[in-house]
Write a sequence for this structure.
């Protein structure tokens, strides 16, 4: 393949200077050849973020090879053509050690709904990217969005981005992606976490290699890191978090996607710490609220601000609603003990308040007449999980139950509901359990916190966009496993770190959509490492018929191990009864099926009896095929289980794509082949695509999945 032809002078090196095969895109791509290094290097590529009608944030990181600490002077040019003949911005910036040599430049007065090319030049070295601005708020245009989450560098290659690029090349111009929404877990803060080691299709651990044969690993932290319960090292300092961004953003597929499209980011937990709430971690022991990590929170926020291009200060939203987003400002904090939460369930302890207050990222963006994109922060202001870490095993033991894993998954739904209500219940002990109520004096649980919740309501209400898309980190819809014949002790919810763990506020928000008559809300979600689609109901526990108020589309991760693989691993233990494991996975190889059949999909969509029946049918000598076993199991389906759920593919990696028009939203959940092959630069190929249609003004009219490719179990 040929080098680009605008090399500027002898000895010039253009990092990533290749065009993709599709000429229409004119996107530089870092993968096509080994690029010779000049005096300067751009080892994390380029990126753009937060496109608005006349502005966008441009980003790169540059180092002088001979002296990585030296200040580097960069020239930034923005042009309306790929040949840079019509240059609309030409300015100088300095990249210094203070920001780890990252630069983030808000470029304004660009003109709306326009594709721009930009390049950063240091000496004779340069790097090129493409971006585009948003149409104005009255522009009657369709909007195409890809959304992603969860990219553990050590679990897999980022081939989902390569697939996204290839897929977009094949789309008609009118369907091509305008921007990418990233819902978090851009990095993972641990090195060699056992649950995130790369797995092959048989769920056996494998070592990942880069195309050049080197191991795909994250090298040790500059500080040495801390050590968590599972022996993994976790980031402690700003240099540790910078190290993670540098490593994850060295991935050529991620770089290629960032060079082609503007991204709009929020964070989830792993930009800071696993299952975090405010600045609290849960690494060392099973005691809740004893791991105040204010200094890590501050460090994590600083590194996010340096590496993730977003327009925070000066962000604009719907008329009449102020945007609270603001840039990182350093603070002095120490890891003090948490105090009890205040009446709004925020911990006022000074170091927590300072660490959280150092930066605010929730904000909304507008893309033409039809899309308001509301981006929230579901980590910085949330209250502790309803069930404290140390209580989950006691509750399960008290009920004579062995759970899959504590303290967040497969939790007893009635206990979560009871504890989430806090002091309102007025009860000193947990009903039926007899243990003291740890939330007897607590406020109601919150995911958004007081200020963000008020902002979310006003933004949703004030926006005149046809569709309100919500960039929501963690799953909102109920994922219930119903207790039958007391097999599980309780009804269970899949994930107490998601909205199923904060059901009171979920009901409040979804009821608000109904009472305020806010139509056409589509929630885009990540976090759970699985694809799901479904309808959001205002009250999942309504004695009558709850109202459909919105829809939710959940994408699997780019590379992180699947939800199914977590549950599979958690049920390998001899302490977990075989009957319980069979609800998650069944070895159907003797009947021509997979040795790890995803019975978890059946459990969620057909109920416990069907899942148990499938396992029994596979073990039955008289049943000769998986299809026959599925038919027997389907005959036992619970017609009341998760009826809002339209689709479950719990063993997936991939991405999501939505096309928004005035009349409808169409969506694809794309499952790629497991991204663990030898070469990271090949598109992994699509295993299946599940497509949905959501008609305007009718969330309950969300279609069932239309699937191309291999259907997920138990669909046929
Ligand atoms: Fe994740």
């Amino acid at each position: 393949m040929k080098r680009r032809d605008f090399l500027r002078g002898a000895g010039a090196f253009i990092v990533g200077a290749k065009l993709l095969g599709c000429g229409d895109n004119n996107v530089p791509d870092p993968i096509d050849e080994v690029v010779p290094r000049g005096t300067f290097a751009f080892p994390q590529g380029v990126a753009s973020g937060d496109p608005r009608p006349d502005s966008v944030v441009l980003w790169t990181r540059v180092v002088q090879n001979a002296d990585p600490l030296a200040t580097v002077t960069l020239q930034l040019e923005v042009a309306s053509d790929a040949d840079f003949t019509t240059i609309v911005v030409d300015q100088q910036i300095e990249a210094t050690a203070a920001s780890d040599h990252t630069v983030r430049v808000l470029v304004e007065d660009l003109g709306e709904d326009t594709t721009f090319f930009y390049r950063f030049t240091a000496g004779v070295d340069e790097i090129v990217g493409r971006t585009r601005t948003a149409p104005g708020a009255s522009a009657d245009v369709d909007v195409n969005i890809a959304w992603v989450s969860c990219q553990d560098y050590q679990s897999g290659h980022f081939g989902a981005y390569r697939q996204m690029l290839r897929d977009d090349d094949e789309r008609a111009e009118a369907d091509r992606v305008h921007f990418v929404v990233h819902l978090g877990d851009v990095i993972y803060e641990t090195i060699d976490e056992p649950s995130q080691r790369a797995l092959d299709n048989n769920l056996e651990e494998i070592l990942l290699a880069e195309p050049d044969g080197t191991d795909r690993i994250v090298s040790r932290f500059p500080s040495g890191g801390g050590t968590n319960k599972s022996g993994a090292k976790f980031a402690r300092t700003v240099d540790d978090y910078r190290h993670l961004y540098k490593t994850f953003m060295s991935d050529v597929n991620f770089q290629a996607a960032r060079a082609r499209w503007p991204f709009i980011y929020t964070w989830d937990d792993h930009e800071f710490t696993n299952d975090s709430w405010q600045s609290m971690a849960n690494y060392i022991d099973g005691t809740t609220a004893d791991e105040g990590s204010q200094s890590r929170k501050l460090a994590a926020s600083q590194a996010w601000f340096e590496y993730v291009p977003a327009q925070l200060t000066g962000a604009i939203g719907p008329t009449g609603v102020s945007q609270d987003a603001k840039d990182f400002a350093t603070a002095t904090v120490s890891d003090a003990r948490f105090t009890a939460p205040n009446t709004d369930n925020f911990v006022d302890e000074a170091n927590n308040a300072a660490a959280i207050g150092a930066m605010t990222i929730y904000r909304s963006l507008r893309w033409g007449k039809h899309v308001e994109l509301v981006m929230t922060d579901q980590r910085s202001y949330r209250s502790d999980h309803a069930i404290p870490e140390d209580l989950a095993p006691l509750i399960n033991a008290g009920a004579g139950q062995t759970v899959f894993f504590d303290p967040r998954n497969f939790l007893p739904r009635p206990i979560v509901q009871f504890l989430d209500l806090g002091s309102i219940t007025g009860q000193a002990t947990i009903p039926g359990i007899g243990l003291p109520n740890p939330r007897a004096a607590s406020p109601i649980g919150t995911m958004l916190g007081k200020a963000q919740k008020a902002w979310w309501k006003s933004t949703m209400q004030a926006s005149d966009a046809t569709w309100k898309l919500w960039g929501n980190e963690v799953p909102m819809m109920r994922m219930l496993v119903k207790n039958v014949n007391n097999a599980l002790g309780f009804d269970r919810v899949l994930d107490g770190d998601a909205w199923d763990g904060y059901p009171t506020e979920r009901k409040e928000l979804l009821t608000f959509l109904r009472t305020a008559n806010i139509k056409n809300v589509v929630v885009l979600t990540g976090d759970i490492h699985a694809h799901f689609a479904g309808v959001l109901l205002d009250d999942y526990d309504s004695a009558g018929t709850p109202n459909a108020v919105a829809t939710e589309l959940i994408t699997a991760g780019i590379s992180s191990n699947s939800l199914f693989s977590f549950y599979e691993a958690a049920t390998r233990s001899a302490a977990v009864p075989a009957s319980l494991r069979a609800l998650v996975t069944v070895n159907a190889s003797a009947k021509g099926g997979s040795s790890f059949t995803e019975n978890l999909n059946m459990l969620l969509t057909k109920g416990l009896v069907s899942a148990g029946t499938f396992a029994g049918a596979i073990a039955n000598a008289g049943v000769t095929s998986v299809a026959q076993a599925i038919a027997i199991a389907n005959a036992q389906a619970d017609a009341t289980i998760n009826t809002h759920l339209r689709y479950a593919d719990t063993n997936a990696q991939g991405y999501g794509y939505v096309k928004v028009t005035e009349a409808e939203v169409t969506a694809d959940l794309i499952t790629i082949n497991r991204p663990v092959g030898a070469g990271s630069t090949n598109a992994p190929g699509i295993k299946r695509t599940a497509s949905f249609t959501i008609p305007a003004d009718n969330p309950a009219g969300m279609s069932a999945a239309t699937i191309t490719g291999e259907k997920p179990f138990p669909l046929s």
About this structure: Confidence is low (pLDDT under 50) at residues 1-24, 31-36.
